[in-house]
Amino acid sequence: MGTSLTEVGSRLAGIMFIWGTIQQLFPQILRRRIETFWNRLDNYFYPYVEITIDEFSSDKNNEIYSHVNNYLSTKSISNDAKHLKAEKFKNIKSCAVILDEGESTIDEFQGAKLCWRFHKETFRDDSQGRNSLPIEKKSYSLTFNQQYREIVTEKYLKHVTEEGKAIEFKNKKQRIYCNNNSEDDYYTRWYGLWKHINFEHPATFDTLAMDPKKKEEIKNDLVAFSEGKNFYSSVGKAWKRGYLLYGPPGTGKSTIIAAIANFLNYDIYDLELTSVKDNLGLKKLLMETTSKSIIVVEDIDCSVDLTGKRKKKKKEEKDNESDSDSDSDSDSDSDSEKKKSKKLTLSGLLNCIDGIWSACGQERITIFTTNYKEKLDPALIRRGRMDMHIEMSYCRFEAFKVLAKNYLRIETHDLFEEIQRLLEEVNMSPCDVAEHLILKNAAGGPEICLNNLIQALKEAKEDYITLLHPSLLIHDFKG
Fold it and tell me: Acidic residues: which segments have biased composition (predicted)?
């Protein structure tokens, strides 16, 4: 064995000597032809190409590495890989099972077979002294036949990246943000303009008390929006959508926002306009929002004076003021104009949600809520800004059946007919109806809750009739 290895070493040395001699003695053109022949010979015996993807590139996180990590987390389980490891990070819903050190897995794409292998090297940084912590260098290598080079470089890697992004988006924990109103520049530089916590609201469209046809219409619109990247690009519009939720208090405006966020798996940015100083501050806030998110402005009519309605001018004073007073008033008017220019204005808000600044992030939804739609300026809620107007009305029978299923786990009951008749005559919010359906006594059954709701509806009806006709006696209507 030792003799054979010695012979192989001596032959390789001889080949290298001959190659060095050829490089010195033969013309450059001939050397190139020999190199071409040698490469063909090498490719014939080893026709594989290897691409290495390191975790870090130029001391920065390599995004492709994380996408590959996500992609392989769904591939390695279904193949022959025996050595795997599970990882779970803070902002990820579920754990990811990925390849362990030295393990490999096979993937196929458009007829090409590709081999992924995970590598990990551990070493110490001698420049940090004897007590330096070990450093891990992680990477993936992708090996494939060179005949598939074009497919891999132009299609497969793009496919892996897109799939990895989709998996990361699906597994990430949702967040809800609120704008940071701190005036400390150091604080905002360090922590940003938004604060966040994990969003864990359980609302879904299945549990939403709303007419099923209206729910289906909203869901179809959301799906069309989320899948409309190519469409929005083809028509030259920013990939955004606006919804106006309006209706009396307690009708579920906040709940449907949570249901939309859970349906699309989007983050929520709860924008408090009263803490925004001016138009520039609003632009800075929107620049820090991410794609695949919902920007919410609740009670838009109460946030700031953005109605845009022109007020009637005051009557001119009869007495002419002195020159000095006029100068003083002029200065006062000038100061007033300067103050107005530093405030958040309707035009500034419109520019951010529908102007050129609306394209600072893709795949975003803007939602306004209000109890009084008629108070809003028409320019704020026109189509193109608020594309879909959704009325959140009082509880009717279809919405009641959803609540009965959610709270009482029943889909029909003998008392439903009477409840349906009363709901058509009385305006009661879904929030109030739900409160009467909560089982406050473990020994009580659904019938107790339904009777409580019927009694509450009858009392509401009596109060309404008494309000319209005070001369009538309440007991006349109890039968």
Answer: 319-334
Residue 358, pLDDT > 50, answer yes
Q: What are phi and psi of 55, to 5 degrees?
A: -65, -35
User: Residue 68 is encoded by which pair of tokens?
Assistant: 């590959």
pLDDT digits (tens, 9 = 90+) for 165-198: 888 888 888 899 998 766 556 556 666 789 989 9
SS3 454: helix
Residue 79 near residue 105 (C-beta atoms within 8 A):
yes
Phi, psi of 141 (to 5 degrees): -115, 135
Cα four-point dihedral sign 74, 76, 82, 84: negative
Other C-beta atoms closer than 10 Å to the C-beta of 242 total: 22
The first and second tokens of residue 101, run together, are 């050190």
DSSP calls for 415-450: THHHHHHHHHHS---HHHHHHHHS--STT--HHHHH
Task: Please choose, from the candidates 261, 245, 251, the residue with its C-alpha nearest in 3D space to the C-alpha of residue 205.
Answer: 261
Please state the rounded mean pLDDT for residues 350-358. Answer: 78
What 3-state DSSP class applies to 228?
coil
- The structure tokens 């990990």 sit at 120
**Rounded-to-integer distance, Cα 303 and Cα 297, Å:** 8
Single-letter amino acid code for the residue at 283:
K
Residue 124: strand, helix, or coil: strand
Q: How far is CA 329 from the centre of its chain?
A: 50
- Distances in Å between the Cα of 404 and the Cα atoms of 130, 216, 410, 436, 445 are 69, 20, 6, 10, 12
Domains and CATH numbers, the chain: 30-171 (no CATH), 177-306+343-391 (3.40.50.300), 397-468 (no CATH)
| Residue 245 tokens, joined | 């939720």
What are 44-54's pLDDT values in tens digits? 666 788 888 88
Pull the structure tokens for residue 274.
């009263």
Q: Rg of the chain's alpha carbons, rounded to an integer?
A: 34
Kind of pairing between the strands at 240-246 and 388-391: parallel
pTM score, whole prediction: 0.72
- Rounded distance between C-alpha atoms, residue 152 and residue 110, angstroms: 10
Torsion from C-alpha of 444, 446, 448, 449, nearest 10 degrees: 110
Count of other CB atoms within 10 angstroms of residue 321: 11
Q: What is the DSSP letter of 77?
A: T
φ, ψ of residue 447 in degrees (nearest 5): -60, -35
Distance in angstroms (rounded) separating the CA atoms of residues 402 and 60:
51
Q: DSSP 3-state assignment of 144?
A: strand
For residue 127, pLDDT beyond 80: no
Token pair 């597994």: residue: 171
